[in-house]
Amino acid sequence: MKKNTPLTTHRIVELFNDANVSGVAYKNKSLKRSILNHLDQHGEFTITELSRELNTSVPKITSLVNELIEDRLIRDNGKFDSTGGRRASIYGLVADACYFIGVDVKRYYINIGLLDFKKHLVSLREKIPYKLENTQASYQQLLNCIREFIQTENIKKEKILGLAINLSGRINNTSGYSYSYFHFQEEPLADTIHRELGIPTFLENDSRAMAFGEFHYGEASNAQNVLFVNMDYGIGLGILLDGKLYYGKSGFSGEFGHIPFFSNEILCHCGKKGCLETEASGQSLVRKFREKIKQGYTSSALKKKKDLAELNLLDIINAANNEDMLSIELLAEVGEKLGKGLAVLINLFNPELLILGGTLSETGDYIRLPIKSAINKYSLSLVNNDTQLRTSRLGEKAGVMGACLLARNKVLTHP
User: Fold this and answer.
1) pLDDT over 90, % of the chain
2) 3-class secondary-structure state, position 287
């Protein structure tokens, strides 16, 4: 990426901070934010159009627009032909005014993306080797991956206004605490990372971030009531109600994988037995696969790995996509059990759209068809008739794009 000319991006942060501001100064700030938000949501506008939309005089809008141009937040994009009058200038946001970083942490790799001011994903690095463990070594490796990404992009750190990191497990995105990974100190993990990297940091549950990305860029961009299922080593759920991401009272909504669905003695990583994840997740798929191999079954998934203990979920997915029968049969078994759980959600929420995402969704119809069959079998027909079942359009990008957007929203949403 080309190196950028230094800009005073602290003015953006000040613009969205109302501390110690009142009177005329507060009103001007509010109007400037309204101008930016209007351009953000609807694209380019003329002074006259902004005046009409914001119910503010043309001279006032002109003055504020000129100040925003001086701050390099918007620019004059040239003239366009208007009916019945002289040509008017049209204004829009400056894409490189600032940036936001999204980090999507998976079990064995990381995806990192860079979003500009106009919400364009300008850079993406996928499947950076990494092993997620609740250790200091894993934590430091995560920080090093982020530092290396920033250096590679060759963007001045002061232009990066926010960083969002997706982690699995229980995350309180308001307080910045992680209760499943890297909880080594009393202070919020988000504050610790902010101090170490020098960038305002926010945490989000990985499934919710993926859902957020899909809600804005993918299959759910025009829907209001959506369930997004993250099918990975575990099972997560992102919920969109009336067009808004639902968090619940403490920010822990969506723990779909920990419904006590089965009467088995399999211990879930949450510490309880019988969770849906114990029979219908990527982790259960790996366990079942290893059990079958020990019973004498064969699979192409083991061609490159001599040690069964080294086999992971991606190996099984790749084998299934190359028509390995054992992998396909086990995916069908997992899909049927997961579909039964999703039938319960459909009966409860009556969503207009159910999106299948996460690593397991990469197997396409091998997982989708058993899920669909179970949903038809176990949910009420009057309820599921209006529910569309789709696979994530964004795939691997969903988490990164969701994290980038969440970081942007956190920084640019004033109290």
Assistant:
1) 62
2) helix
Alpha-carbon distance of 409 to 141, in angstroms, equals 27
Place of tokens 């025009």: 222
399/358 Cα distance (integer angstroms): 9
pLDDT at 376: 94
Mean pLDDT computed over every residue of the chain:
89
Residue pair 131/138 in contact by the 8 Å Cβ criterion: yes
CA distances from 7 to 96, 158, 210, 360, 411 (A): 9, 9, 31, 43, 17
C-alpha–C-alpha distance, residues 123 and 68, integer Å: 26
Q: Which CATH class is domain 98-210+399-412?
A: alpha beta
Token duo for residue 75: 């620019």
pLDDT number for residue 252: 85
- In Å, how far are 19, 311, 353, 382, 396 from 350, measured between CA atoms? 43, 38, 9, 9, 27
Q: Which DSSP symbol is given to 131? A: -
| DSSP assigned state of 396 | T
pLDDT tens track for 296-337: 999 999 887 768 888 999 999 999 999 999 999 999 999 999
**Single pTM value for the model:** 0.85
Calculate the alpha carbon distances from 312 to 128, 184, 299, 305, 307 in Å: 16, 28, 13, 10, 11
Domain ranges of the chain: 10-96, 98-210+399-412, 223-392
Q: What is the pLDDT of residue 2?
A: 40
Residue 413 has pLDDT above 90, yes or no: no
Going 5 to 69 to 12 to 105, the CA torsion angle's sign is: negative
The fold of the 223-392 domain, in CATH, is Nucleotidyltransferase; domain 5 (3.30.420)
Summarize the confidence of residues 339-363 as an average pLDDT: 94
pLDDT value of position 245: 87
Closest CA to 282 of 308, 312, 255: 312
Q: pLDDT tens, 105-117? A: 998 899 999 999 9
**CATH 3.40.50.150 at 10-96, yes or no:** no
User: 98-210+399-412 with 223-392: one CATH topology?
Assistant: yes
Rounded to 5 degrees, φ, ψ at 260 are -75, 85
**Residue 365 structure tokens:** 């119809």
